[in-house]
Design brief:
The structure is a homodimer. By secondary structure, the first copy, chain A, is of the alpha+beta class. Chain A contains eight helices and eleven strands. A four-stranded antiparallel sheet of chain A has the order 1-8-3-6. The radius of gyration of chain A is 18 Å and the shape is globular. Chain A starts with 19 loop residues before the first helix and ends in a 13-residue tail after the last helix. The structure holds a DNA duplex.
DNA sequence: CGCTTACTTGAGTCTGGTCAAACGGGGTGG
DNA sequence: CCACCCCGTTTGACCAGACTCAAGTAAGCG
């Protein structure tokens, strides 16, 4: 089990430094680890989970279903992300989370969350911070689905994933390897697979991307941002619970 | 100025009862009121606000723009809603808020938020709760924009607004008076006004709604939920900061 | 009374969806 | 080792839902 004090994620500069006390508390808050295989369901809509998780390694995605099976991917989940917070509000998950790769998750007991709020206001604030951050991402996705064209949407989502991968050291200057299929893109963007494929091809023909053998090359990030109408973000250090 | 202890909203059963201490603190947290006219911009994208607000009366909406002016309404704002929290995360608002009617807002100083976290873990938890609640709404909207058809979307949004209005006593059994135009519906649903209008007409012809003189009648709520694939929610009491 | 804002409606277009079929590569069992 | 299969991708043909353009109506207001 990875001890929080020597958590490899914490060395990344996206995450704000923690004091010794905070670190000690978080280490005590963590009650174990959970390892999920690719394709595994980590949280299930309708169930009530007793746990909170932080992703240590691997990719996943949050989604909901319409009763007739239409699926909407709400967001992707990467290392450093806190998941399962919603269940503390609703008593019941309103979305599911599925692993895209093998994943390693830190497990926290929900009951101890209360202790965190009582004893570590700074960490409590951090959790609110993370919730607000997720909210911001959802706002942006909503803008995509509502107002961007298919081409813009795909450009946007690829950049979104790239930026997020980048921030946790999973991307290099030229690209990264998102463990997703075109089905995932389609379901995240509210499009059909066929049209997703054809739009992807257009981006390819515009020499903006190349996607071969699971690796996605962003050939001209600036031009891609232009297409997506997405300016670069300077991400402020965020907490890692 | 409305004293928190006798806040009319607090008498509604959607809001969880507060202890005397909590109420006293919130009363101290509130530093004033702000009254906005219909159409006024309450928070502006790109600006950094020093304040947090809770809506006392009136309706508004949150939105973002694409650089070329395309607008996406992210959510509507009703009495009891806390707004401006995002700015504490981002140093800069990522969305704007505009008033749909005259609005009365409670004003809180952002600096005192820290004190709240230190002295009242229960209230801190409440703020996280509210953030998670907003997140849930956004998830649902995302599902709408991504996977619902035009007819389903409109049904969904009207019900969403109805349910929310209902919970703060702004609706009766047969309908309510949302202070919005078809433009707002269109921008919230990612549709054009023309198509919104035509789809609305279809709902009218199905005898599911009637919308005249600002008042919206829901003629058959159950059937409307059916169309929207939206089951009724039993809303658990939420905090009112 | 004239102006503006919101709502309607029709015609024509196009983006994106559906259906169907085929391809390619990796894995597996005979 | 090969045949087969499955999954993900690709492509073409056709269709429809939603958009744009354009014009007209109704209602509210100074």
């Amino acid at each position: 089990m990875v001890p929080c004090e020597s958590c490899p994620l914490r060395r990344l500069e996206t995450f704000r430094p923690f004091t010794k006390e905070e670190l000690t508390f978080v280490a005590g808050f963590k009650t174990g680890e959970f390892s999920a295989e690719s394709g595994a369901m980590i949280l299930q809509e309708g169930a009530s989970s007793a746990h909170l998780y932080t992703v240590l390694t691997g990719w996943g995605f949050r989604y909901t279903l319409l009763p007739d099976g239409r699926r909407q991917i709400l967001n992707f989940v990467l290392p450093g992300d806190l998941i399962g917070l919603q269940a503390s509000v609703a008593k019941e998950m309103k979305h599911s989370v599925e692993a895209l790769t093998g994943m390693l998750l830190c497990v926290f007991q929900r009951e101890k969350l209360w202790e965190l709020y009582e004893r570590h206001p700074g960490l409590a604030y951090d959790i609110t911070w993370l919730a607000a951050l997720e909210e911001q991402m959802l706002d942006r996705h909503l803008l995509s689905l509502g107002r961007r064209t298919a081409l813009e949407r795909i450009a946007y989502l690829l950049l979104h994933l790239y930026d997020r991968a980048q921030s946790v050291g999973l991307a290099d200057k030229h690209g990264f390897s998102p463990p997703i299929t075109q089905y995932h893109l389609a379901d995240a963007l509210g499009m059909s697979i066929v049209h997703t494929n054809k739009t992807l091809k257009r981006l390819y023909q515009l020499k903006l991307i190349r996607w071969k053998n699971r690796r996605l090359e962003l050939l001209d990030v600036a031009a891609l941002r232009e297409v997506a109408h997405l300016s670069e973000e300077t991400d402020t250090p965020r907490p890692l619970i």
